[in-house]
Amino acid sequence: MRKILLILFVLLFFISCREERDSDVLNVAISQDVASLDVMKSSSRVLRDILIGSVYEKLFVLDGGEIKNELASSYRLSDDGKYLAIDIRNDVMMHDGSVMSPHDVASSLNRYIDSYEPASDMTGSSRFIETPTGVEIYSERPLYLFIYLIASSPQSAVIAKAESLRENEYGLITDIIGTGPYVLESFQPGTSIKLRKFPSYSAYGEDNDGISGIKHAYFEQIIFNIVPDSTTRRLGLERGDYDFINDVMSYDIPDLEKNEDIRLLGGEESGSIALVFNKRSMLGSSPSFRRAVAYVLDYDGVMKACYGTSGYSVHSDYMEKEQSLFSVSGDPYLEEDLEKAQKALSESPYDGRPFRILTSNLSNMEKIAVAMEGMLKRIGINVEIKVLDWVGFLEERNNPDSYDLFISAFSSVVLPTMKLYLLDTYPGWYESDRKDEYLDRLFKAESIEEASLLWQEAQYFFWHDVPVIVPGHYSTINASSATISGIIEEDGNHFWNARRLEG
Fold first, then answer.
1. Which DSSP letter does residue 325 get?
2. Which one of 31, 68, 96, 306 is most buried, counting C-beta atoms within 10 A?
3. Domains of the chain, with CATH numbers?
């Protein structure tokens, strides 16, 4: 009897220890794998949610549209906008135990500029140099909007240990050394990314719940489980395997709303679907063919194929409605017109060859391609669809010989110049002197208000030139256990202040 009691005691001890240990772990299920952890080279929304603010931090953050210091303490901009000086905090501990230095900051910002075309377009050949209190740059071009750029760009202007910026044979960094409240513990592609609490974190910020608030890091460990299948994510949340899941499908929303143990998050426009023409292919390079496709598509039908009956809005602005200064209306292609589509097609070089559409199987993207195929057949366009997993899709879209259009989602950005598909070097390869003129004027804008007026004109040009088609914008819905609070939803999902409620 005594032996049985001893065994039961040991079992209860290990069970209680496991429960206590598990309570210190936040389990997150994410919908897509990541090709690398190099946030200066990748525009992945999921990767930014994992690393930005938790592992890596930036000099400034955008909090409710307002610039706030994070690793910077102040900045000064000359009247002509061509000189920028940034002072940095002197109390920031990096994950290797060193104190963040001007050398780290200058090295990080210069690699960011070299990696992100909108940044290099703004700075020209100028680069940051170190000062005793931070960094400075003497630019050939005005830098009025540069702080907004580094606070919010999709390829992130993070500050890393200078020595960790060494690139591998693929031009990527693999040594992840930042300043955030969590350190990278492990990365298993296709399986998980694990973060561990950084005990020497230098807490900074305001005592609020916003993105610029103090970071508490309540969990000892955060595990991001890569779970591409939406049903598996939902069932895992309902069972308690996961504390948070992203990309909830619209057809799952009614059932989750009835579950008192689950909380739905999100709902505002958080990005757009873009149908990006390959301007290096015969069909994608033809403005007439692009207009034919734009006229024949039913934009609501395209979005519904992916999102069902909810979770999206139909408007073809490149910018989301939340960016009200850059909201434009009047797209001539918003309503389908088969007669105009047929006329544009007759003026194009289309000769019956298949129109090749490249897509991934992430979050129902392939269903958009299928819906487009049915619409395009109405005016005699043959379609060939190539569906790959996310990592394969990212690689394939770099090959200009393999497709005429690719389908992808693009997360919300603050400035139109940050739209990647407008860049010469981004897949789709949009090279246009007129486009460059518009972007150059936007780069030189002395205020957000001036940039807003310039964008109105630019948006009309892009609608008529049709380098991409934006059929609509998605409202990402996520879900968490009702026992989790403190998830910051601004500019993505951030978990550094997430905590498990008692009871």
1. G
2. 306
3. 56-165 (3.90.76.10), 182-267+477-500 (3.40.190.10), 271-474 (3.10.105.10)
pLDDT in tens, 336-381: 899 999 999 999 999 999 999 999 987 788 999 999 999 999 999 9
**How many whole angstroms separate alpha carbon 2 and alpha carbon 42?**
60
The phi and psi torsions of 189 (rounded to 5 degrees) equal: -50, 135
Strand locations in 152-289 (E): 158-159, 182-188, 192-197, 221-226, 244-245, 262-266, 271-277
Helix (H) or strand (E) holding 67: strand 66-69
Instruction: Decide: helix, strand or coil at residue 503.
Output: coil
* Of the candidates 493, 501, 497, 502, the residue with the CA atom closest to the CA atom of residue 48: 493
Distance CA 146, CA 113 (A): 11
3-class DSSP state of 442? helix
69-84 mean pLDDT: 94
What pTM, to 2 d.p., does this model score? 0.77
Q: Are 138 and 176 in contact (CB under 8 A)?
A: no
SS3 content of the chain, % helix, strand, coil (to 5): 35, 25, 45
